[in-house]
Write a structure and sequence with these properties.
Helix content: 40-55%
Distance between the termini: 9 Å
GO molecular function: phosphoglycolate phosphatase activity
Strand order of the largest sheet: 5-4-1-6-7-8
Largest sheet: 6 strands, parallel
Number of helices: 10
Protein name: Phosphonatase-like hydrolase
Keywords: Hydrolase
Number of domains: 2
Organism: Roseiconus nitratireducens
CATH class of the largest domain: Alpha Beta
Pfam families: Hydrolase
Length: 224
């Protein structure tokens, strides 16, 4: 029996026009690089953002210092704050409805994200969502020791919602690292979704339970 669904945010439940990875690319390339958007999303999707920057930089095959990563990350955070201040954020189609549908089934809903807490909270405020209403908890990369693909955020979500068995948890996200996170946590099911950073073929490389096109398709699995 499924007790908890853990949803990724950007690209999965939140439509923010891919501004995070566009901003990651802008900050990296402002430091003298020429990475494409496709390279940034393939290497960085779903990760804590300083780790995403580190992994994108590693694509050039050279060593990059912690100081360089920290400098680019600081620039990224400033650029993102400006971008979010100007951005009209929307939920992905049907997200609120799916949250309600799961709650009616007695299933808890948690958002988790590679964002830091401040960024994540600004996002859900823009959407009019709040903990205790649309969602049962929010877990961010800055709340745990290890980001994705480690299981820390899912374990934290279970702790916050009182769910004891990982087999009763579903994880859904728009990147391979979301699927890897769910598998590392021992989730009963893991799903990719094609509304965000990666394609169906990319998502299937992580061997999820299934790849979805719409959030509402989750009902067929939690009701089974």
């Amino acid at each position: 029996m499924i007790e908890l669904v853990v949803f990724d945010m950007a690209g999965t439940t939140v439509d923010e026009d891919n501004v995070v990875y566009k901003t990651v690319r802008t900050a990296i390339n402002a430091a003298g690089y020429e990475f494409t958007q496709e390279q940034v999303q393939a290497a960085g999707a779903g990760k804590e953002k300083s780790q995403a920057i580190r992994d994108v930089l590693a694509l050039d095959g050279r060593d990059h210092s912690d100081d360089e990563v920290s400098t680019i990350f600081a620039d990224f955070k400033k650029r993102l704050e400006t971008a979010y201040g100007e951005l009209h954020v929307r939920e992905q189609p049907g997200a609120s409805s799916v949250f309600k549908g799961l709650h009616k089934r007695g299933i808890k809903v948690v958002l988790n994200t590679g964002y830091d807490r401040g960024t994540a909270e600004r996002l859900i405020r823009k959407l009019g969502w709040s903990v205790g209403r649309e969602i049962d908890a929010l877990v961010t990369a800055s709340d745990v020791e290890n980001g994705r693909p480690a299981a820390d955020m899912i374990h934290k979500a279970m702790q916050l919602t009182g769910v004891r068995q990982a087999a009763s948890v579903v994880k859904i996200g728009d990147s391979q690292i979301d699927i890897d996170e769910g598998k590392n946590a021992g989730c009963g099911m893991t799903f990719g979704i094609t509304t965000g950073a990666q394609t169906e073929s990319q998502l299937r490389q992580a061997n999820p339970t299934e790849v979805l096109e719409r959030l509402a398709e989750i009902y067929a699995y939690v009701d089974g």
